[in-house]
Design goal:
single chain, mainly alpha, Hypothetical protein af1432, Methane Monooxygenase Hydroxylase, Chain G, domain 1, 9 helices, about 65% helix, binds fe (ii) ion
């Protein structure tokens, strides 16, 4: 088995063992998307593949205190060192993992980090983004739809939280936050689909469609 396959099975076991199967499925989608963006952008696919597979390993033992991206980089380093993987490559992979969230000072600096960031964000929009938003709303006991509330004032994780709120306050801005040309191209299509979906949803709710 090659290194990527070995690492894949380690990550899969870790993410499934914390009863978070969706994290593993999300990881698989991000991996596939990162590779197709990476090929077009001319990224180093060896670094990108390993970074994508390992990017959410920090979700394991997530205590909400330490950033899962920071923790993920530490765990990824430990795993790759077990295989005597070259340290300069480990460093590049760890940068991608640390910067995949980019909510702090960890700005994606390399092409591979930018591609991983874009692939991770793209998994939150489009048809899959809609699916995830409704699935999450169901998980926290929120409504299917609630046009009566002001989405900007509605609280996240509350019973008023809906996929619609998620779209209005977060998802519709994702397309403007991406780094790569190919990522932005994919985002346009995914964004347009979501826009159409929610427009129709609001019409249906009003009995107009
Ligand atoms: Fe993440
Ligand atoms: Fe992720």
């Amino acid at each position: 088995m090659d290194l990527l396959e070995e690492v894949k099975s380690i990550v899969q076991k870790e993410l499934i063992s914390i009863n978070s199967c969706h994290e593993w499925e999300h990881t698989e989608r991000v991996f596939n998307l990162a590779l197709s963006i990476g090929e077009k952008e001319g990224a180093d696919l060896e670094i990108l593949s390993l970074a994508a597979i390992l990017h959410d390993i920090g979700r394991k033992d997530d205590d909400g205190i330490i950033d899962h991206a920071e923790r993920g980089a530490i765990l990824a380093k430990e795993i790759l060192e077990r295989y005597n993987y070259p340290s300069e490559k480990i460093e590049k992979i760890c940068h991608c993992i640390k910067a995949h969230r980019y909510r702090n000072e960890n700005v994606p600096e390399t092409l591979e980090a930018k591609v991983l960031y874009d692939a991770d964000k793209l998994d939150a929009i489009g048809a899959i983004g809609i699916g995830r938003a409704f699935s999450y709303a169901g998980h926290i006991g929120a409504k299917v739809h609630n046009k009566e509330v002001d989405v900007v004032k509605t609280e996240e994780f509350s019973s008023d939280d809906t996929a619609w709120r998620e779209y209005e306050v977060k998802l519709k801005y994702i397309k403007d936050k991406l780094f790569t040309k190919e990522g932005r191209r994919i985002a346009e299509g995914r964004h347009a689909f979501m826009e159409q979906f929610f427009e129709r949803l609001n019409k249906e709710v009003d009995g107009k469609e």
